[in-house]
């Protein structure tokens, strides 16, 4: 048994409820494949990446917690508080697993926890439905070297002072295309793969402006300060 657990919506499974983790299963998301077979042929065409990236199903996170031996009144009170903690959400929220350092999930409990109450304690099982990718805790472009992975991470600049034109490269070190949030002090233009994107002053995000996996050469045209906010997303 371990005192490690999960943090979710401002509380911790062990620190606030005294529950230890008996077991867990971090599911892997499945790809969503769009295929078409040519009639009278063994040829199959895969259209899954037609719009720029591979899509994935949501993933399941299953945690089984040990319930400490306690009287019926305390157990009932804990059960009510525990269920309210997990179920009082309208959408996916940040979930941190203590043993997965540097990342978090976006998850939601859609089905009520399964309580298996025994005479001396018991277990409860919680299944989260989560966004397919784990999210990096730190924004890209940070200068915190203690968490830097020299095999997978990029040391990159994500904030620029522009006076005319800048050619630069943004790096997406994850496994999913990302639509960065762009914060600009003035209206500017970004050119990526020959396509022009008009960036307004202030904070903006566009589904059209995406960072592919790996290197993304861009040209920034304008005058002022511009910052790209994004996190790596990994399976």
Topology:
Blueprint: E1 6-8, E2 11-12, E3 20-26, E4 35-37, E5 44-46, E6 59-67, H1 72-87, E7 93-97, E8 103-109, E9 114-118, E10 121-130, E11 134-136, E12 159-172, E13 181-184, E14 188-192, E15 195-199, E16 202-204, E17 214-229, E18 233-234
Antiparallel strand pairs: 1-2, 1-7, 3-6, 4-5, 6-10, 7-8, 8-10, 8-11, 9-10, 11-18, 12-17, 13-16, 13-17, 14-15, 14-17
**What is the chain-wise order of helices and strands?**
EEEEEEHEEEEEEEEEEEE
State the major sheet. Answer: 10 strands, antiparallel
Number of domains: 2
Backbone CA Rg: 23 Å
State the shape.
Answer: globular
Would you identify the CATH architecture of the largest domain? Answer: Beta Barrel
Q: What integer is the average pLDDT?
A: 88
Protein name: Phage tail protein
Give the tags.
Jelly Rolls; globular; Elongation Factor Tu (Ef-tu), domain 3; mainly beta; 45% strand; 10-stranded antiparallel β-sheet; 2 domains; single chain; 235 residues
Kindly summarize this structure in a few lines.
With 235 residues, the protein is mainly β.
Q: In words, what does this structure look like?
A:
There is one protein chain. The chain is mainly beta. The chain has 2 domains: 6-136, Elongation Factor Tu (Ef-tu), domain 3, CATH 2.40.30.200; 145-234, Jelly Rolls (Sandwich), CATH 2.60.120. The chain is 7% helix and 45% strand. The chain has one helix spanning 72-87, and strands at residues 6-8, 11-12, 20-26, 35-37, 44-46, 59-67, 93-97, 103-109, 114-118, 121-130, 134-136, 159-172, 181-184, 188-192, 195-199, 202-204, 214-229, 233-234. The chain starts with 5 loop residues before the first strand and ends with a strand. It comes from Cytobacillus horneckiae.
């Amino acid at each position: 048994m371990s005192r490690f657990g999960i943090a979710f919506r401002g509380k911790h499974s062990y620190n606030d409820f005294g529950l230890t983790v008996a077991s867990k299963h971090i599911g892997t998301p499945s790809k969503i494949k769009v295929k078409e077979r040519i009639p009278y042929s063994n040829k199959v065409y895969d259209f899954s990446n037609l719009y720029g990236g591979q899509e994935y199903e949501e993933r399941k996170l299953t945690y089984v917690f040990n319930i400490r031996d306690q009287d019926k009144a305390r157990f009932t009170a804990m059960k009510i508080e525990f269920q309210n903690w997990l179920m009082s959400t309208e959408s996916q929220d940040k979930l941190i697993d203590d043993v997965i350092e540097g990342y978090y999930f976006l998850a939601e409990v859609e089905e009520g926890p399964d309580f298996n109450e025994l005479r001396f304690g018991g277990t409860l099982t919680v299944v989260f439905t989560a966004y397919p990718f784990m999210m990096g805790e730190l924004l890209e472009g940070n200068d915190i070297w203690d968490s830097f992975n020299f095999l997978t991470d990029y040391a990159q600049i994500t904030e620029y002072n522009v006076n005319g034109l800048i050619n630069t490269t943004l790096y997406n070190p994850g496994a999913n295309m990302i639509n960065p949030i762009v914060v600009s002090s003035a209206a500017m233009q970004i050119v990526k793969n020959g396509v022009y994107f008009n960036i307004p002053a202030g904070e903006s995000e566009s589904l059209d402006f995406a960072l592919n996996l790996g290197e993304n050469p861009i040209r920034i045209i304008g005058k002022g300060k511009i910052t790209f906010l994004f996190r790596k997303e990994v399976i």
